[in-house]
Design a protein that fits this description.
Shape: globular
Strand order of the largest sheet: 1-2
Strand content: under 5%
Number of strands: 2
Distance between the termini: 35 Å
Length: about 300
């Protein structure tokens, strides 16, 4: 356990940032089975309802051909169905996420049309983060009806974006209070989803868990070289959901997601150089559990 980690996590606003990210990761993990089932059924129903979708792509259409309506007839049929089932009129979809010839056989390729930029290489349910899944649920009308601009799913997307766009990776107690309210409204919408039955409980435990109060126990643990830490009567072993070992890994996942977020924005010429500098400084001055040499090479031409 490094002193740097102890000092970093003892910052209340940074601890809030990590815990909010942990909550979003729980939402994504437990939402995936429901989303996968819905998209599998949606894909099957589209194929049954429109024979033209069952035909193979005629010329290996790239995404830009679909975007500008230069694709083959089967791919344009898929484009029409995707737009027809989008909750917004004239949506600006991220066609670059998709491999159009695979729409006929892969329901995740269909799902990616409703997600934010940066999903091209994603292939399986566990590769999609909270942002991807929430945007899919918000904009594809296969899912329970929501207000795409002010509904609970959109509010969750805004909270996730606040978190990922926080320049200093800090959020206040006031922001956390609003986040809890947003999550409560979100869970009301998905109470019927079996895979999310335990999500609220995990999130309540995560929000109540005081990382700082367990740091001393963890340090004692390292000195004694035992397999578990006992604090406040609770055993926090290395396999625990809220072990500091797991918290550190979740922190690494969050930082990785933050980096990928900035890379995707860079691809669209939307990179914020001030935020990039702040993140670079954070990773260079903190002993984070990430090993990413040459991390910022991808941004050099953008900055």
């Amino acid at each position: 356990m490094s002193l740097d980690f102890v000092l970093r996590v003892n910052n209340k606003d940074y601890q809030n940032w990590v815990k909010a990210g942990l909550c979003l990761s729980f939402v994504a993990e437990d939402l995936r089975p429901f989303v996968e089932e819905q998209m599998r059924d949606f894909h099957r129903d589209l194929l049954r309802g429109n024979p033209g979708l069952q035909e193979r792509c005629e010329k290996s259409c790239p995404p830009n051909h679909v975007q500008f309506s230069k694709a083959c007839r089967p791919c344009l049929e898929w484009k029409s169905e995707i737009l027809k089932n989008h909750r917004q009129r004239d949506p600006k979809l991220k066609w670059g996420n998709c491999n159009p010839p695979a729409w006929r056989t892969d329901y995740w390729e269909l799902a990616k049309a409703y997600m934010p930029q940066g999903q091209l290489r994603m292939r399986a349910a566990n590769e999609f983060d909270a942002s991807a899944l929430l945007n899919l649920v918000n904009y594809c009308d296969r899912f329970p009806p929501v207000d795409v601009n002010t509904g609970p799913v959109k509010e969750m997307i805004r909270c996730r974006n606040d978190l990922m766009h926080s320049a200093k990776l800090l959020v206040t107690d006031a922001w956390m209070k609003n986040f809890k309210d947003v999550m409560a409204r979100f869970f009301e919408l998905f109470r019927h989803v079996p895979s999310m039955a335990q999500t609220e409980e995990k999130i309540h435990e995560a929000l109540a868990y005081n990382i700082s109060s367990h740091l001393l126990g963890a340090i004692v643990f390292e000195c004694s070289s035992t397999d578990t830490v006992v604090t406040d009567g609770l055993e926090k072993g290395s396999g625990s959901l809220f072990s500091l070992e797991n918290i550190r890994q979740r922190e690494a996942d969050l930082l990785q997601e933050r980096v990928w977020e900035m890379r995707h924005r860079a691809e669209e010429d939307e990179i914020d150089t001030e935020q990039l500098t702040t993140l670079e400084h954070f990773l260079q001055t903190h002993n984070t559990p990430m090993s990413m040499p040459g991390l910022f090479t991808a941004f050099q031409l953008k900055t």
